[in-house]
Protein 1
Amino acid sequence: MGIRVGIVGISGFGGGEALRLIAGHPSFELVYAAGEGSAGCRLIDRYPGVPHKLAGLMIEKWDPETLPELDLLFASLPTGASAEALSRVREEVKIVDIGGDHRYVDGWTYGLADVWPDRIRGQSRVANPGCFPAATLNALAPLLAGKLIEPDNIVIDSKTGISGAGRGGGDSKFGYAESNENLQPYGLLKHVHMPEMTTTIERLSGGSASGLVFTPHLVPMTRGVLVTIYCRGNATTRQCVDAAQSFYADRPFVRVTDRPPQTKWATGSNLSFVSYAADPERRLVIAMGVVDNLGKGAAGQAVQNANLICGLSETAGLDLPPVWP
Amino acid sequence: MGIRVGIVGISGFGGGEALRLIAGHPSFELVYAAGEGSAGCRLIDRYPGVPHKLAGLMIEKWDPETLPELDLLFASLPTGASAEALSRVREEVKIVDIGGDHRYVDGWTYGLADVWPDRIRGQSRVANPGCFPAATLNALAPLLAGKLIEPDNIVIDSKTGISGAGRGGGDSKFGYAESNENLQPYGLLKHVHMPEMTTTIERLSGGSASGLVFTPHLVPMTRGVLVTIYCRGNATTRQCVDAAQSFYADRPFVRVTDRPPQTKWATGSNLSFVSYAADPERRLVIAMGVVDNLGKGAAGQAVQNANLICGLSETAGLDLPPVWP
Amino acid sequence: MGIRVGIVGISGFGGGEALRLIAGHPSFELVYAAGEGSAGCRLIDRYPGVPHKLAGLMIEKWDPETLPELDLLFASLPTGASAEALSRVREEVKIVDIGGDHRYVDGWTYGLADVWPDRIRGQSRVANPGCFPAATLNALAPLLAGKLIEPDNIVIDSKTGISGAGRGGGDSKFGYAESNENLQPYGLLKHVHMPEMTTTIERLSGGSASGLVFTPHLVPMTRGVLVTIYCRGNATTRQCVDAAQSFYADRPFVRVTDRPPQTKWATGSNLSFVSYAADPERRLVIAMGVVDNLGKGAAGQAVQNANLICGLSETAGLDLPPVWP
Amino acid sequence: MGIRVGIVGISGFGGGEALRLIAGHPSFELVYAAGEGSAGCRLIDRYPGVPHKLAGLMIEKWDPETLPELDLLFASLPTGASAEALSRVREEVKIVDIGGDHRYVDGWTYGLADVWPDRIRGQSRVANPGCFPAATLNALAPLLAGKLIEPDNIVIDSKTGISGAGRGGGDSKFGYAESNENLQPYGLLKHVHMPEMTTTIERLSGGSASGLVFTPHLVPMTRGVLVTIYCRGNATTRQCVDAAQSFYADRPFVRVTDRPPQTKWATGSNLSFVSYAADPERRLVIAMGVVDNLGKGAAGQAVQNANLICGLSETAGLDLPPVWP
């Protein structure tokens, strides 16, 4: 018998990707799925391609008081919807919260799995990083740890596919006809992912990051996050690449590349690509990071965190190559 | 002073395209715009690129009783929403109904402008064809008129961009992430456009069309309709092309092409492309038709109809070449 | 030590998908990769997300005379390029030809794996069906076997994503700007997939299929095939569905659905969806089929065939749920 | 008789858009079209939707020595291809070079039409700005002219649709299947548009701009450029907006908006949207600019320049509202 796993938020994009990864995981057994819109359906009604073994599982209405026997719960709920509800889940159920409510909250570990796996191992409450922070912090961590850039002078220009905005309640802003062939900035100077990035940059660098600038953009594609980060420092491209290769030497999911990364390299995988271009004459360091916002940016990193807290191999169920083209 | 024009349903895709065409029309002056969602806004708040002369026009809440002085009204309302309301519009206001409520309804002329312009000239109540019928009937009319195919043995396989499903109420079915990279049939054996096609085919052929088969598909693109129509008859490709060229000899918007038409040929225009491939040995005639579902399939044909009922040149305001790429 | 596997045509879309599936296969070990454009590179230079264990494998220039020790070869070469070359591969190397040169060629088995797995088991030369035939034949087989439709009166209207046209030599016809927001029929009355469909329909039905009509369309999406097939027969929807459920009762990859299938249901998987809508009054049966053109339509079915010829579990390496959204 | 106009590079995206605009221009008459790939065809063979009056015009092989009687020539040739050839065009033929060879070259005026129309009026050799500079310089000009930002501390993160990469020679890099669902930086620290931006910023500000940072990205959409520009200065958002509104008070094509601009606002038009968000506490000014890369970024601004050099109304032929959705 495997580890008994549940998913809350099964109808959303994060929950759906968690389902895909758990379905192929060698140690996890999905025994519980809950969701708003699709409660009362079987999994196969909602996901026509779900494996036969899971096809008949009924989707429940989410209620933290009436969970079945569970070892591990993945929560993928809208911001604001998980704080109270997850507090009512039994202590002995381990939780990975893919949503935003528990990042840098007391009693929860911030699950930046590629950077600090040892802090995560053995914990029972892990808050998954947001998709932008996942791409950003993996790219910056080696530079901050190596003091190659100034922590307080960082400009993050980030771009995400539209699934990053969530399945939402059918907001016509994200309707096909209006989003296709359209590119737009949003949430200028006040995005919800700012605090976790500022806090993590400060932890990694030991300095202040109050000057952080972050501008997200919505790109007409389904999946993918690319961050282009403008930093100040004297490092050369070579020094940045070397720092990153050394920092991630034994980490299975981060790839340091010589050429600028493309979002399609990561699609469907838990991989994270980082790359650098520097011009010491202008004290300029450009760091780039690519993830799949539903992979490393959500369900992929969640499974990685779950592997760590369950004492499994970190790569269990995550060794899927990306889908191309 | 030009012809005073109003648009009802200004926030939808059909209404927006009507706005674009009217803004560039030499004889029309937009004096009234009404819409649900955007009532109380100026036009420029809803359409940031609207010409300066129209920027300040306030969007009203739609009320047929309190219209300003108007010569002509374009209505682009959801199916079911215009029948009662338009009956309360003053007689002397001419109406082109882009929506579906008045097709083959007593007192209204079915505005198949490329096929029977003479029936439309001078009328004051015109029902615009749906986007699928627009593409289909233009392709079939020459074959039916020339008795080149059997009217009762026609299979229409049609494909539309997602704006053809309307701006909707934010139905997440048409959300970007779910619609992109997805192709789906819908409304099998019961689409709302069936009756107007059956009726028109019968009028054009003099025979029954009760065997009509029609299968629409939703294609991941914003604009464009392509119909691939399988007919039975003894004609050769050459005979079909000749019949169409002769049928449309003096018509400004229909183009008969030797190679299969592509939806992008029509984007942003009121053009209609028709093409044919036949195999007399198998008694097979394939007719193909392409339109922009918001052009010939909605606002373009509506302006063409308006030109006809107002006694203007049929091409006034409609001589825009398509947008490529 | 696993089964030693090679891929020829590694740079193309079919070869790339074969790589992805083989990388995750429990019994296959990739020891050889050959390709035109990328010969001399390591796999990771071409596929930045390839698993570490394969990263350093050098891509060879394709030469059938100098193959290493191999048990199994996947060939994914352009039409016309494999016939002669594969004839020079050593007898003892099993071959699955994803390309089109060996379909219904003497000495080769046509690998319609979901329909006739027993003909494939133990063979050593298998020709994979084309992507359109894969979707079409899976949808038609139960109807033909059950005599529910006339074999000689079938119209196939098919739609494929652009990867179905192959990676090509950079033909600008398939350039992004020209293909995006564009939908087009092509290859009317003479597509290269016609003969294998005609032959298979005749084998399954015992009757002539010389009247077959087939019209492919190119849809602006990367992956996915949908076929909408118009047939004549007296069956009801229920009878068709029942026939298909019974026909595929023990087959792992074919799913019979009540609602019309969507291409996204299959993306990234080896699944095949079939569905039916019939109107006995008009003697109309509409059969629909969905596959991923690179999954069941190419590399997925190729791996399934390879499993069959190697005596492995048919689903080995293929139990990946589809990627959504 | 109108002004006799020619287009060189008619098969490319810039040439095609010039054709569309010229076809609808009240004073221009297209009498000459030349192109590589399509020489020997009629215009309608290449552009199936071209107006009837132009349908039969033959596409010539480009030869500057054998031009017909012409008043004005639009050149849209690949970088490097126009310098020598255009030098052989007769003096009395006015030229607008949409390509990159004559920007800030002696004898040519840099045609930044919204910013310095008076320098362009009456000239006979005008070099059109690149698409990125068009979006960038329109957004920065008011800030630079008003000394609201430091000219030497500017980071431009720009994003373009794939038509911005040109129709190319069928480079499979821009193939649909590989570009769709993909987002990628390119040309880091060395893009060909850098020099004209640096020079113009220096002219507008009177200071050095040697520290300019520019990172272009390719976005999976056909048309549209968005630049997000990070500057240093003490201005508030209000001050930036006011400066821009005053700077562009009488300019017909630039729109200053309160909310971040979206690329779809400009599609198919010659409009340029600029917007600002500042945080004086951090001395941060974010300037944003949106254009259609084929409109203001190419053919639109070219026609605007042509209007200026021909003494016509600046908006002649350019008052098309954008296409939405």
Protein 2
Amino acid sequence: MAQRTDVTRALAEWIVDCDIAKIPEAVQQEGVRTFVNWLGCAVGGARHETVDRALDALTQFSGAPTSTVIGRGERLDALHTALINGISSHVLDYDDTHLKTIIHPAGPVASAALAVAERHGISGRELLNAMIVGVEVECRIGNSVYPDHYDRGWHITGTAGVFGAAAAVGRLLKLDVQKMVWALGLAATQSSNLREMFGTMTKSFHPGRAAQNGAASAYLAAAGYDSSNQGIEAPRGFANVLSTKQDYNEILGGLGETWEAALNSYKPFACGIVIHPTIDGCIQLRNETGVGANEVEAIELRAHPLVLELTGKREPKTGLESKFSVFHSAACALVRGDGSPTAFTDEAVNDPTLIALRRKVHVTTDPNVHEASVDIVLKLKDGRTIEKKIERAIGSHEKPLSNAQIEAKFRGQAAPVIGAELCDKLLATAWKLPSLGKASEVTAASVPTPVQLATA
Amino acid sequence: MAQRTDVTRALAEWIVDCDIAKIPEAVQQEGVRTFVNWLGCAVGGARHETVDRALDALTQFSGAPTSTVIGRGERLDALHTALINGISSHVLDYDDTHLKTIIHPAGPVASAALAVAERHGISGRELLNAMIVGVEVECRIGNSVYPDHYDRGWHITGTAGVFGAAAAVGRLLKLDVQKMVWALGLAATQSSNLREMFGTMTKSFHPGRAAQNGAASAYLAAAGYDSSNQGIEAPRGFANVLSTKQDYNEILGGLGETWEAALNSYKPFACGIVIHPTIDGCIQLRNETGVGANEVEAIELRAHPLVLELTGKREPKTGLESKFSVFHSAACALVRGDGSPTAFTDEAVNDPTLIALRRKVHVTTDPNVHEASVDIVLKLKDGRTIEKKIERAIGSHEKPLSNAQIEAKFRGQAAPVIGAELCDKLLATAWKLPSLGKASEVTAASVPTPVQLATA
């Protein structure tokens, strides 16, 4: 594509112009599903040690409390709330995925938008509008540089997410086009986050910081703090500096007509998306054969090289590390039928049965196998061999979770944290997002009282 | 160099170990000069519109006030104070320069360290120690990736500065080695900032945000928020993702023996460093010839291509833009003998005499001319031709500013903002940094009372 000089401005014009009436009903519905899934993840992760430590470090720096930490109830300023909710929504690696780019869209965008909406008393409908626009911006910018940008080592959820958060919050603050351009420029210059951080607490920091920095970009622009007019496309702007691929048609082509936000998917399993076909297949094999761990001779997987690259930890030591181990995941799925957060705990990773079985998992990589597929051969000690071919896993765009499955996932995460009763109330409130007078009804409904916790 | 896996840890060990007794006296003295120069710049920029707008946007998000905005007196939390002082110290493009990398070292490091020192009641000596270590870390990391990293479009003051701020604040918080490693990892994943932002308010945001994010990295690590152990050197860490050059010997070689912090230089002119030889030469020509603007036929410059690349604005419209115009700078130096902040105002850039003269400035680029040199040919209407060859400009490492010149620069910036009397008091306090019981004596001395302002 020839050099363009109007990408940032054209995108800003669309962001400012895209009222909810211009968003198709089906995209709005997917937006609500995105919101509900994100909220369940944020509640599910709310009591994680990672969140505790971030609060320990940063609460002292919060401004006047205007917004609520989901599932906990601490009140912080909107920017710190965006950070903390972004961390908690990602810490279980259970959030949503834009499969074309492996962006987890809601973490940066919904975390920023809800915290800001609560601060300013904004309606659920406006929040939904802003969130969908933010997710669209984030995924399109991701598409424009993927895969080179990701292959280089950028954690695209953070690098693209900061634009999505800026766009969403920019809408909530009703920025004009020039200020929206500046907000995108401020986002561009804060686009960062390295894949090296995977397997540490800092991975979850990425969507949180992208939410916080994107929101700050919008507030700065609102105050007239100016920036480049070509933050995305300039020779020393985001796309050229952070990628060798720059396809601006991915950003501007069909804008408002085709929707990346409608392609969002929701993980049924609490780990890296590339292991999902393996877990899906191993759970199916468990259900179909009922084999015990001591009957297994070997579990042979044929998978895309990315599977080992991203999740090749053979001997994970902690629950967190086990999310990056296809070996542990396969063993746990076959023995326990579990791919939920309870499959990735310190208990599970140190279970002698699972340790023994994961050492019987062998992975052959083959670039001809699709990233979203796997071929599994289960060899038993009695000589039987059972094959299972997973073309696409549950939760993929081809086999999306139903609303009922999203609800079940929500309850599985949220009920242990805030109690079953509050969990149901929160879920009901979340589905009603488009009609809520204030988006903050959701955050209020996420916070347990001492009585509710005692009866949980 | 072969792949190394201990760069971040070895650096962290040195940071933790490097008490003031291990810093040579001459390096300490340069550290004080760095501090004084930075402080003058921060006071000089304190009332700039860029600072006003940042405060307008972000004061609402500040936590409990523990630290002081230099030269103004607003009190904010330490992280926001670091941001604002980082912005004000850079906004006049008058701050210090590590000439090997064009890093402006003090902005990220001193802004973070002083705000945190004030919050915790830390002594001037400890602040000086932390600042020198932080500058050393920042410049060495810069050296390891320069020039490729900068050429690619990264604003190295921000990308390297965040490490320096993390190191300095990590020392003030007395992090152990493991936590210092995490702080550097958190800094690595926040390393960003694009050169595209030059000429906008967002350029000054870079050292400020690097200060704020580096300090936050140290606070997070102190609370046990973990990160990569190889944030700098991992295949998907800072150096590999943000550069094609990775020379880790620049980071670890001679650590504690040779000092990049001793190579800091201080700008005599309030603009991009590559124009300094031109301004120096034109001021000399003015003093030697006494020519008036209407006697000039042409000013011909032969300079390194970087000069036009960085400062090639032919028709700057604002004071800010004029800092990136070698044409305006040459004209203003020849007519007014001025390279101080008053040379780069909206008034100066719109002066008809200077507009006419800058159009007579012609630049020939030649890669064989050193970046720090220039050949000037002044052609007069009466047929005379006067040549001036500037090998190195005043303020360069070869021709450093004396303490008296640093003081004159300080007064030229600070007195108009806080009054001459307070300016003298502040300067005296700043030079005494190593013996101050509390570093915050400096910030207190920088704030004018209404009475002082009225008599200024």
